[in-house]
Amino acid sequence: MTTRLDGRVAIVTGAGAGLGRAHALLLAQQGAKVVVNDLGGAVNGVGGDQAAADRVVAEIKAAGGEAAPNYDSVETPEGGAGIVETALKRFGRLDVLINNAGILRDKSFAKMELADFEKVLKVHLFGTAYCTKAAWPVMVEQKYGRVVVTTSVAGTSGNFGQANYAAAKLGLVGFMNALAIEGQKNNVLINAVSPGANTRMTEGLVGDAITAFMGPENVSPAVAWLASEACNVTGTIITAAAGGFGRLHYFETAGVQFDPRQPITVDMFAERFADIYGLDTVVPSTAGPAGYIDQRLKSASLI
Ligand code: NAI
């Protein structure tokens, strides 16, 4: 099974900058025809500029690849349908959907306006659902498809000031888990990438010691593999940052078993809580935001 994408058509949402741009460039280099979607707004989702998508299309063409721009917002069902329509009209098929578009509206939950909570869910979670909704029947019908969603350590571990973003990002994991089951029999596979990279979204957040390693192009190889025929997994989360890659997986402790035929009391639960809660036999999947990045780089003596 090849990692090449010759003859394949891919959509990358939010591909006008940052990670999406790097994904689009690599997919094109791997042989895919790429729909470069971006509405070209600010990091908080305000405004729009077609130049963002146009620039990346020009870059792909200059490198000898094929690409078409799309300026729809992922935030509406019509936007999602329009993006898929561009792939079908311009290139005649659709094999790969990389759901990457995203914004930030950070604030502590006490101070967060509900409008900012809703807006962030709308772009990340609903945006992914709208694009996937339009792509899904095409992929199921042709019995082939590769979908990637973009989650975050903010969702899997939490982060101060990102209740909206964390909810959206872990919501995407639930979305993926369900679609992984629904898509498998038709060879439509869906996985998540949990990236870390220097972009305008993370400006000033990445520690000095690792900044030099955090180019978005160090994330894209994972996305390009998940987008290829070679990908033989579904419903998994792949972490990718600074040249380090891993699999993030949830676990359950061995816990305790009471006799369910007898009444189970609160006191019984309280007495055994340490056995239910303790992580003696399992290792937490991350050490919190950016923790795993530092750990890997340190163990390779890179920082
Ligand atoms: P970025 O701000 O550089 O790129 C996001 C792109 O999405 C922008 O070009 C923007 O115009 C576009 N976009 C925003 N709303 C859109 C909409 N409604 N429709 C179409 N396009 C839209 O940010 P970055 O860092 O490249 O983020 C890409 C994805 O990776 C996001 O989903 C983000 O949440 C996620 N992520 C990034 C991390 C990082 O370390 N940079 C860490 C974890 C997740």
UniProtKB/TrEMBL annotation:
- Alphabetic keyword roster: Oxidoreductase
Which residues constitute the signal peptide according to the record? none
Q: Which InterPro entries match?
A: KR_dom, NAD(P)-bd_dom_sf, Peroxisomal_Beta-Oxidation, Sc_DH/Rdtase_CS, SDR_fam
For this protein, the record's SUPFAM superfamilies field holds: NAD(P)-binding Rossmann-fold domains (SSF51735)
**Which CDD domains does its entry note?**
hydroxyacyl-CoA-like_DH_SDR_c-like
Name of protein: 3-hydroxyacyl-CoA dehydrogenase
Q: Can you give the residue ranges of the Ketoreductase domain? A: 8-198
Whether tRNA-binding counts among this entry's keywords is: no
A Gene Ontology molecular function term for this protein is: oxidoreductase activity
Its domain of life reads Bacteria
Any matching Pfam family: adh_short
Task: Indicate the family of this protein.
Answer: Belongs to the short-chain dehydrogenases/reductases (SDR) family.
Source organism of the structure: Chelatococcus reniformis
Q: Which Gene3D superfamilies match?
A: NAD(P)-binding Rossmann-like Domain
